[in-house]
Amino acid sequence: MEKMPKWADVVLVPIISLLLAAILSAIVIAAIGESPWAALKLMVEGSLGSTYGWGYTLYYATNFMFTGLAVAVAFHARMFNIGGEGQAALGGLGVALVCMFIPFPHWSIALLVAAIAAGLFGAVWAAIPAYLQARRGSHIVITTIMFNFIASALLNFLLIGALKPKGSMEPATGKFPETTHLPTLHDILGVIGIPFSKAAPVNVSFIIAILACVVVWALIWKTRLGLEIRSYGESEPGAKYAGISPFKIIMISMFISGGLAGMMAINNVMGEAERLVLNSVEGAGFIGIAVALMGRSHPFGVFLAAILFGFLYQGGAELALWTSIPRELIIVIQALVILFTGALDNMVRTPLEAVFLSLRKKGA
Amino acid sequence: MTQAPALELKGISKSFGPVQANKDISISVQPGTVHGIIGENGAGKSTLMSILYGFYKADAGEIFISGQKTQIPDSQAAISAGIGMVFQHFKLVENFTVLENVVLGAEDGAMLRPSLAKARKLLTKLADEYELNVDPDAKIEDLGVGMQQRVEILKALYRQADILILDEPTGVLTPAEADHLFRILENLRAEGKTIILITHKLREIMEITDTVSVMRRGEMTATVKTSDTSPEELAELMVGRKVLLRVDKKPAEPGVPVLEIANLTMVDSDGVTRVKGIDLNVRAGEVVGIAGVAGNGQSELLEVLGGYATATGTIRLNGEELDLTGKHSDGQSRRNKGIAHVPEDRQREGLIMDFSAWENTAFGYHHDPKYQRNALFMDNAAIKKDTQEKMDRFDVRPPDPNLAAKNFSGGNQQKIVLAREIERNPELLLIGQPTRGVDIGAIEFIHQQIVALRDQGKAILLVSVELEEILALSDRIAVMFDGQIMGERMPADTDEKELGLLMAGVTEGAA
């Protein structure tokens, strides 16, 4: 017997969580003497009120879609991959290497090769902790987070050394060649005559991210591998009984997960910065965990949650720019959303289930 | 009887959401009697006892103890009202001694020594009075389950329980241990204690109880004197229709050996040897039953045969040797060779509880070409159609392939697994605890399916801890104890007593 209808589970629970987070944020904003209403208006206008705002919102959302999908795929195999940060950083390295050292005739080929490189670098970075988990039993949470630090140190090392242009004082690569620059949404929509902000960083990667959502959905629910991944995630004894190799599933699911996280680099490194800088991931790997939690590890949920977090990021930046609300407080607001939608899920769910049960009892 | 009843329940009701677990239940238990409560899984027995022990609060109804109306908001109140409970799963601290476990939670003061001394004296007394012998200084982890159960009873008596509730007490015991338990219960009854025995085994009810209440779907359908009833009548009251308690089958016509096991030894991941050099054959057209108390290597034997545990020795299927190292085999290759497996624990292994029935039907057979649409995708529509047909043939209710496995009753879950495995028309069917947690009505059906498969000339290896089931279904019985096969018997030439001795590791020479 289901405790409550599915629509309540997937729609009502996150909306109520979100409202609670918004109310608490409003109280916090009011407490420092700003108007919560004005702040909300500013956030909405700044992130959704213009194509410029949308351009940033969707740019951030693209990052979060990749990292959110990465966490979601691993979740289905009951692997908690919190190494998205490091895998995305390695993805950036992959992008930088192919963009700098392979002469591409056209951006489309560059994108294809860069995406493969980014995915491969991220995947291999995730495969090491996966192997340690599968063969040695080292807990994936511990190892993936350790690999974040290793990735950070590795990039540091490369960016102040081998990859830095001669004479530069900045820990970053030089600008990628012109032929690797990706078309932005302005360029794409311009073809069909729709005006879109030229300054916004959202680019063709956004479309790749949506494609990735569709591919992950099909993988998880339409393929044999998806069935095996979900079986292993639900029950390891069950998977063994059915002849599904735990080793294989851990390796493959983490490989895919790391690959998705790595592919984020085509957006931030190739699409936006057009060079590799230090700390290019900017926490998107961790936001991916919240996105996957809120999206219930379903690609469509991840898509929606990624756009919500894109909105929070862009709206937050606007708040910091135009009000006296300090940047730290915006992080608090984002944290509240993560807290309510992710960690405090049961706080909303349990009472809601009780409500539905009593409703049903009256109806019966 | 003029005495006030030791325990009286009036109009107890309890629902969980839309499910009414207990509906207006009233019983009255006289002091110094054994009262049985029998019913299928999910009939509401455990809920009723949980209310009595203060775990749940009843929606309506009253509890009287020795004529006094009593509120039982928590288990502490139940204990002070003189109610003691022996759970199916013992609640003991493994690395404490018997004495420490008995005293735990009922210490007299801050210092342990006086309580322990008092308990030691009482334990000696109880041991003499009721045949409740346990070494007070033994650690729980060193005791067998039968002994551990005695500690639970001692715990209750130490807390001066007058009413003792036992929830499925014989599930983990050998027949000999169960007999001893019943002797203890008889002694307790003679001393004037009141005992409530919850079970689904008709035999136990007939053997020890004075009165018996039957529960069905949350309702108390009857309360009768045990001497006035029969197992057939009780079964009918439990299920609500006539039930065949015996399995109807022709004599077996065994053919060539299908499964040949020689000198099989299995060491688990903790380095414990679970199976110790077993030799066993199963021929076409026969059911070989493995009897034994749970945890004597039967589960591991099934795991090895099912391809997901490694072992040494040889196993041949139709003459062909199977790989036991795990290097060239797993559950998949076993299935390909024609071994189907209904695992002992369907909720942990046999099914993915959150998966729909159709996903569970593909589970394990997900490489079947007829389930694939092309190289990339599975043909979910074909799987659903196949599931629908299987559900119809095995009378799974409700016949909805999209329903999650967890939403089916135990019996219907088992039918989903059985349909998946039997419909593959295997050479060899491994089947563990086929009717555990399955209601009587479904047991009949499941037994018929097993016999039907046998009559098609297939080999069946049955593992069950229910001796009755082993005796009813098997054409040949092997008894396992401590990883070894103690002996083989033909069902016609043996009885529960002899098998019980073998299950306890006693061979003819020693007996």
Give an overview of the whole structure.
The complex is a heterodimer of chains A (364) and B (511). With 364 residues, chain A is mostly helical. In chain A, 75% of the residues lie in helices and 0% in strands. Chain A has helices spanning 6-31, 36-48, 51-76, 84-101, 107-136, 140-159, 185-191, 205-222, 224-234, 236-241, 246-263, 265-273, 284-294, 299-322, 327-343, 345-363. The radius of gyration of chain A is 21 Å and the shape is globular. The model of chain A has no long low-confidence stretch (mean pLDDT 91). With 511 residues, chain B is of the alpha/beta class. Chain B folds into 3 domains: 7-239, 3-Layer(aba) Sandwich (Rossmann fold), CATH 3.40.50; 255-338 and 427-436 and 459-511, 3-Layer(aba) Sandwich (Rossmann fold); 345-425, no CATH class. Chain B has helices spanning 45-52, 75-80, 98-103, 112-130, 145-158, 175-190, 202-208, 231-239, 298-306, 331-336, 346-350, 357-362, 380-393, 410-422, 440-455, 467-473, 496-503, and strands spanning 7-16, 19-29, 34-39, 60-65, 68-70, 83-86, 163-167, 194-199, 211-216, 219-225, 257-267, 273-283, 287-291, 312-317, 320-321, 339-342, 428-432, 459-463, 476-481, 484-489. The model of chain B has no long low-confidence stretch (mean pLDDT 89).
